[in-house]
Amino acid sequence: MSIDIETARRVAKLARIRVEDNDLPALAGEFNDILGFIEQLSEVDIDGVEPMTSVTPQRLKRREDVVTDGGQQKAVLNNAPDAREGFFAVPKVVE
C-alpha cells in the first residue's frame, strides 16, 4: 500500500493537523515508511509465542475482587462546591 499526497492531506485533515502543502510530500513519505515497517512486522512468525506484559518475565499481582464504597466519602465531598446529605448537590436543570 502506498500513500500519495492527497491521502496524506486527507489524513492530516481527519487528524485536525494543519500541514502546509510543501510539507505534504515528506508526510506521505513518513506514512509510507510506517506502513513498510508494519508490513515487515506481519512477516514475523508468531505461532506459539505468548503475549507479554513486559520485556522481563514477571507475574502480575492479583487480589480478590471485592466491591467496597471506597471509604472516602467525606474526603471526596470536601472538594465539592455544594454537598448535601452525603451527595454532590448540583443545580436543577429540568423543570
Secondary structure topology:
Elements lengths: L4 H10 L9 H19 L30 H5 L5 E2 L2 E2 L7
Antiparallel strand pairs: 1-2
Helix pairs in contact: 1-2
GO molecular function: asparaginyl-tRNA synthase (glutamine-hydrolyzing) activity; ATP binding; glutaminyl-tRNA synthase (glutamine-hydrolyzing) activity; transferase activity
GO biological process, one term: translation
Keywords: ATP-binding, Ligase, Nucleotide-binding, Protein biosynthesis, Transferase
The main sheet orders its strands as: 1-2
What share of the residues does DSSP label as strand, in percent? under 5%
**Radius of gyration from the alpha-carbon trace, in angstroms:** 26 Å
Q: What oligomeric state is this?
A: single chain
The description of the largest β-sheet is: 2 strands, antiparallel
Please report the total strand number as a whole number. Answer: 2
Structure description:
Helices cover 36% and strands 4% of the residues. It is mainly alpha-helical. It has a domain at 5-42. It has a two-stranded antiparallel sheet with strand order 1-2. Helix 1 packs across helix 2. It is flat.
State the gist of this model.
The chain has 95 residues and is mainly α. The chain contains 3 helices and 2 strands. The protein starts with a helix and ends in a 7-residue tail after the last strand.
Please name the defining characteristics of this protein:
95 residues, mainly alpha, two-stranded antiparallel sheet, 3 helices, GatC, protein biosynthesis, asparaginyl-tRNA synthase (glutamine-hydrolyzing) activity, Asp/Glu-ADT_sf_sub_c
